[in-house]
Amino acid sequence: MVGTVDARLTDLGIEIATPAAPVANYVGFVTTGNLVFVSGQLPLKEGKLQYEGRLGESVSLEEGQAAARLCAVNIIAQLKAACDGDLDRVKRIVRLGGFVNSVPGYKDQPKVINGASDLMAEVFAEAGTHCRAAVSAGALPLDAAVEIDAIAEITQ
User: Fold this and answer.
1) pLDDT, tens digit, for every residue of 20-33?
2) Structural domain spans, the chain
3) Strand ranges (DSSP E) for 8-89?
């Protein structure tokens, strides 16, 4: 039986792939109690970085939003793994931490990270509303345009 969250993903045309392997000495997520802490996710698709460079320089706001959305898809992939394939176990997206690779003085970090926040609301409905941070970074791994981490509450 397909769950509610999986049905929403299908309606949105989003396929959740196997989570990307970590690029250094860490794991993709850690579960403690009812919380899942998801490591920072990059805008990777099929193992390849899709958006690289800095906002306000070589990456447009719209591309930054698309990068953030792809990071959110990768967060959902990690959550699916953490929930043994059952995304209906996600009770709440608690927090997103958004990092935007941008030039000094860039001020649209919240608009960029909305690409991820909007997707979480679309996929998880009320449970997708969350608190968050949206900050500039002078550089990100692999020169990614965006990196986002997450905390979610799940049912056992």
Assistant:
1) 778 789 999 999 99
2) 4-16+32-154
3) 29-32, 35-41, 44-45, 48-49
SS3 (DSSP) at 152: strand
Unique residue bearing structure tokens 């958006």: 51
pLDDT (tens digit per residue) in 83-140? 999 999 999 999 999 999 999 999 999 999 999 999 999 999 999 999 999 999 999 9
Rounded CA-CA distance 44/23 in Å is 12
Predicted confidence at residue 1, as pLDDT, reads 53
The H-or-E segment that residue 90 falls in is strand 90-101
CATH code that applies to domain 4-16+32-154: 3.30.1330.40
- Tell me the C-alpha distance between 126 and 6, whole Å: 16
